[in-house]
Amino acid sequence: MFHYTLPCGGFNTLTKLTETGINFDPPVYEQRYCATIQILEDTRWVHEIKKVTEFGCAEMRLFQLMRRIETIEHILQVDIDDNLLKGHLNRTNPLVCDFLRQRLGPLRVEVLHGSVADSAEELRDTDAVIALELIEHVHDDVLAKIPANVFGFMQPKIVIFSTPNSDFNIIFTRFNPLLPNGFRHHDHKFEWTREQFKSWCLAITEKYPNYMFSLLGVGEPPPGDESVGYVSQMALFVRKDMLGMPLPEPLKVQPLPDIGASYKRLHLVDFPFNKDNRTQEEKIWAEIELQLHRCTKDEDNYDNEKCMYKMSILELLDRLAYLGATRQILDQLLEQHKKPIENGFVLIEEEPDCNYNEELFEEYEQTAPVSSADEENWDN
After folding, report:
1. What is the pTM of this model?
2. In the CATH hierarchy, which fold is given to the domain comprising 14-275?
3. CB 348 within 8 A of CB 308
4. Among 52, 122, 283, 358, which one has the highest count of C-beta atoms within 10 angstroms of its own C-beta?
5. In 193-344, where do the E strands start and end?
6. Chain-wide mean pLDDT for the chain?
7. CA distance 129 to 54
8. In the chain, where are the structural domains located?
9. pLDDT digit string, tens, across residues 243-252
């Protein structure tokens, strides 16, 4: 096990008891989605997560948040209920805004009818697996196959599972009895205590030593009932190389089972994106021009003695780091475009009649990348 804290330090939630029940604000399913997105955007692996597979995607609500992560290039939405998938296929289509302000990179979305227990060619090269409130819906034979498919066949970089915490049920029963099956939902096959969930996770890491896990949760208990834990428990599995640790076992491409499962594709869509065909030097020079232009908008950068604006080369280089610019490239471009340099500063002449197109720069600034941002009524 290892200790994990959400990158943004979690989020503010409110759990309160009323005369008729317990309310979570925001609803627990939203809290699960927010926690999942924060994990995906963790700076330690966000640039390594290109392909995401969500098992048990149901109505594809989480997809609306995942699609906004620019570094993700491929999302598989997988569920065993093909009728449910077919009824919500339109949720994976690009919106009007996706054509007006296009992504900076590609995004392919596939909706697949298949089981979390089955290994299939489509699942290869998955970087992140998500299965929220899924495992409690499957029978024991399917549950037993999940680790082999996810950790043995797919071998993703991170895996996120969530499932109800049955320790919390004692609070629910103060207001209403559980369903006739003894659980929160009519389709649940089990609901685990925290110890049972932990034991399941430990068994996985014992069999697949390339992984470590951390236990989290969403849906805080009401004041005075902290001993029952969260209403929904989560486990984050991380492959050790993502934590800067050596892998005990080498990664190998696993063959499909002799009787390979067949996933049925119900929908495929490629989102529009802005393909930048400029050379690296052209991209860097465009950013240099933008930064020098911005410099002239701050009077603190004005040198009265020289009657020019000044910008530190080191500061400029820092702002170009995301493009892979080096000092050598920067010096070459400044010399090529005849930008004077003195004592470590770029000198920017005043050009009252310059040809800067203000509207063009405003448009660029608006579209430029920003540096690094339910099934159950019990969850309401």
Report:
1. 0.76
2. Rossmann fold (3.40.50)
3. yes
4. 52
5. 211-218, 232-239, 264-270, 302-303, 308-312, 341-342
6. 91
7. 6
8. 14-275, 280-367
9. 999 999 999 9
The residues pairing with 288 across neighbouring beta strands, listed in sequence order, are none
**At residue 17, what are phi and psi to the nearest 5 degrees?**
-90, 140
Residue type, 147: P
Compute the distance between CA of residue 209 and CA of residue 273 in angstroms, rounded to an integer. Answer: 39
Strands in 125-206 per DSSP E: 128-132, 158-164
Q: Return the residue matching tokens 């009787």.
A: 259
User: For the chain, how big is the Rg over CA atoms in Å?
Assistant: 26
**What does the pLDDT look like over 147-160, one tens digit per residue?**
999 999 999 999 99
DSSP assignments along 242-275, one per residue: GGT---SS---PPPPPSS----EEEEEEE--B--
> How high is the pLDDT of residue 62?
98
Burial degree of 2 (CB within 10 A; 0-12, 13-18, 19+): exposed
Closest by CA to 365, choosing from 301, 290, 295, 299, is 290
pLDDT in tens, 79-111: 999 999 999 999 999 999 999 889 989 999 999
